[in-house]
Design a protein that fits this description.
It is built from 17 helices and 32 strands. The protein is α+β, with helices and mostly antiparallel strands and 749 residues long.
């Protein structure tokens, strides 16, 4: 893609937060408004969460678990719900929010008469630029957050021979104060929760070029400078360090480097990741502003190049909000405005956190998945305490949300009693191996997660009265059903999604244990449990049932489509291996959509992935367009509404699934006696993308894939194997046989 194809741009400043442009390095994120003459840059630091470690385990839970299970098996749903609500929730049942760190304000003293304005986000450079004319001169800004140097860098420059004049300040709406910390520095500092919580500190340093910089109370003033470089670092006491010393050290280290060197270090590090994948889906309408292109699509036009830009924007967001050594991307990535962002900007583990990482492995950003695995590993200890206290089980459990303090108990409401979060998160531990073939990473990081999640599930499963193993209590996330007497319930026994997640977890854990030669007796236990799982059922409408009984849905257009997990992101149901179940999934999907399902951004993105797995490119494309038309802001952020980043990542993943799939066939890299993975080229290519190419996608088995097509048909492909291995090739639905590629070799198609 050209530079223009990788740029979001606008002819005016952002008027509100949801129009600003995001930058970040995983730990530090910022939203750049691009105002003229007044600029606002709102910034976040990943660890600035209210609250702290809390023992939320409920001492009543385990004693009342048998009663809840008995009542559900007897069909006494309301009574079971009341007991669970009273005795099984975490204490307290609420978590505290992630918060904005503060704002950087810049007032340029050149007047309000601005002309030839352009604000842009260059994805290839990971930088926001602002250019305009004012006062007979040109003014330029360039802003980025450097991963190598750990600072936000903002360069202000002008060609006015008198130089520029600016006032710079920092602020936070609560629990902080700002003051001068030297002739060219400002310090913003405070402590959350009335001084009892995290301590935080940001340092800002201004370097003037050709003029003067000085402090004036709580403000920095630059006068007569042809350029000013602002350096900002932020830190908290979350990891035990001294935030002021950390922030100051980063700023001073960055200040020792010339601006061109800071820019080059940032750009080189970013492009080493970003340029791994190149995507061309077709031509766009020319160099129109991004909001105008989006408006055209909302009005019914198609813009393949905008979808390619959206794909790369998703990869950019993942790089900017999830890097090794950092926390994983939360509900808003690393960007959140205010003291109480929507849903606390937490880690929702009943789809949202997992969706954030769907594109990480296939879109060639495996490093960006490591924070999720490290975070999940960190939940093993608190999750083990909750597993024992609430269920009397081995292993570890996570319920439907968490935070940076290790919350693993049920929270929010009775829907929070959903002990499947760890089991689903463990899928990413296996996928990290399946795409890379890195057995050592599986041994040291992935397998402990899989093993302990599976230990919990094996102990948690109980009989349903017919000899099958089910989860109890259970519910289909956030959805409810009508009982024959007309009453409504969420709680049941063996909800379909639970059984599908359990199948996925046990299958992956068995494969990992066999590969590593670990836990022979435990493998036998897993196989026995797998063989006794209650089978999936098809309902009276021909649909895959969402619950153990064919209940009527209270909300047939519900945003969660949890029972379709086995199609995506699971691999239990595929069109060729399980055609009857695949038809039932399609029927369930069509029924949901007929009643208005897919009305939130992340839900619509999931629908596009479903259709891609069903190899229906036209339907997948239609829902990608719906994602742009109904759930995408002008800055391309996803709208739940309000802003929630999972839809961006889910949409990026859907585009990959349309062009390359590798979930069918063997479970990960082929080993002696196992089937190889099936690499399917162009499985769901829509007619709207007749010509194009993608380079650098990854497939399970440790392969990297380039694909070119013309006239809707494969033109050429190249599959590279860093470690070597076997694969079964499929092209647009046609079997192309089994192939072997030596280590470091390639297969040309």
């Amino acid at each position: 893609m050209s530079a223009a194809d990788l740029t979001l741009w606008y002819p005016r400043p952002a008027a509100r937060w949801m129009e600003a442009l995001p930058i970040g390095n995983g730990a530090l994120g910022a939203m750049v408004f691009g105002g003229a003459p007044a600029e606002r840059i709102q910034f976040n630091e990943e660890t600035l969460w209210a609250g702290g470690p809390v023992d939320r385990d409920n001492p009543q839970a385990l004693a009342h678990l048998p009663e809840v299970r008995r009542l559900l098996l007897e069909g006494r749903h309301a009574e079971a719900t009341a007991v669970a609500q009273e005795t099984m929730m975490g204490v307290p049942p609420r978590i505290r929010p992630y918060q904005s760190f503060g704002d950087l304000w810049i007032d340029l003293e050149h007047g309000d008469d601005v002309a030839e304005y352009r604000r842009e986000l260059d994805l290839d450079a990971a930088a926001v630029r602002v250019r305009y004319g004012a006062g007979g001169a040109r003014h330029t800004r360039e802003c980025f957050v450097s991963a190598p140097d750990g600072v936000l860098v903002l360069r202000l420059s002008t060609d006015d021979p008198r130089g520029l004049a600016a006032r710079v300040r920092l602020s936070r709406e609560q629990e902080a104060e700002c003051h001068a910390a030297g002739e060219d520095r400002l310090r913003l500092h405070g402590a959350l929760d009335g001084g009892a919580g995290l301590r935080f500190e940001a340092h800002l340093r201004a370097l003037g070029h050709g003029g003067s910089v000085r402090t004036d109370g709580d403000t920095l003033r630059a006068e007569g400078c042809h350029a000013v470089t602002l350096l900002l670092a932020a830190a908290t006491s979350y990891r035990g360090g001294e935030p002021g010393a950390e922030a100051l050290a980063r700023v001073d280290a960055a200040a020792a480097r010339p601006y061109p060197e800071l820019l080059e270090r940032h750009t080189a590090e970013h492009r080493a990741l970003f340029r791994r994948v190149d995507l061309d889906l077709g031509m766009g309408p020319g160099d129109l502003p991004t909001d105008e292109r989006l408006a055209r699509v909302r009005a019914g036009a198609e813009d393949p190049a905008l979808l390619a830009l959206y794909f790369q924007f998703g990869r950019y967001l993942l790089m900017a909000s999830s890097r090794p050594g950092c926390l994983p991307a939360n509900l808003q990535g690393v960007w959140a405005d205010g003291m109480s962002p929507p849903w606390n900007s937490d880690y929702h583990t009943n789809i949202n956190l997992q969706m954030n990482y769907w594109p990480a492995e296939p879109a060639n950003l495996a490093e960006c998945a490591v924070p999720l695995l490290r975070y999940t590993d960190g939940l093993r200890a608190p999750g083990a305490r909750t597993a024992r206290a609430h269920y009397g089980c081995r292993g570890f459990v996570v319920h439907h949300l968490s935070d940076v303090w290790g919350c693993t108990t049920p929270c929010d409401g009775v829907w929070g009693i959903w002990p499947m979060g760890a089991a689903w998160l463990a899928q990413h531990a296996w996928e990290h191996y399946a795409f890379s073939g890195d057995a050592e990473a599986l041994r040291t990081l992935g397998y402990p997660i899989l093993r302990d999640a599976a230990r919990f599930i094996c102990d948690f499963l109980s009989e349903d009265g017919e000899g099958y193993l089910v989860t109890n209590p259970s519910h289909s996330p956030e959805n409810s059903f009508r009982l024959p007497d007309g009453s409504v319930s969420q709680f049941t026994v063996g909800a379909t999604m639970d059984l599908e997640i359990v199948f996925d977890l046990l299958t992956n854990t068995i494969a990992a244990a066999e590969l590593l030669g670990e836990d022979g007796e435990f493998r036998a236990e897993l196989r026995a449990a797998l063989g006794r799982l209650r089978p999936l059922r098809i309902g009276r409408h021909g649909q895959l049932q969402e619950w153990i009984e064919d209940y009527d849905e209270r909300d047939p257009g519900h945003r969660h489509m949890s029972h379709l997990f086995a199609l995506h992101p699971g691999r239990q149901i595929t069109p060729r291996a399980t055609p009857e179940l695949a038809r039932a999934v399609r029927t369930a999907l069509e029924r949901r959509l007929a009643h208005g399902g897919g009305h939130t951004g992340w839900s619509r993105a999931w629908v596009a992935n479903f259709w891609a797995r069903l190899e229906e490119g036209g339907e997948a494309h239609a829902h990608l367009l719906a994602l742009l038309r109904r759930s995408t802001a002008d800055n391309l952020f996803d709208l739940h509404p309000p802003f929630q980043i999972d839809g961006n990542f889910g949409g990026t993943a859907a585009i990959v699934e349309m062009l390359l799939q590798s979930h069918a066939g063997g479970n990960g890299p082929a080993r002696p006696g196992t089937a190889p993975p099936e690499i399917h080229l162009l499985p769901a290519l829509p007619v709207a993308w007749p010509d194009g190419h993608v380079r650098g996608l990854r497939a399970r088995g440790g392969f990297e894939v380039d694909v070119e097509w013309a006239g809707g048909r494969l033109r050429r492909a190249e599959i590279r194997a860093a470690r070597g291995g076997r694969l079964r090739l499929r092209i647009a639905g046609r079997d192309a046989g089994e192939h072997g590629i030596p280590e470091g070799g390639r297969l040309e198609v």
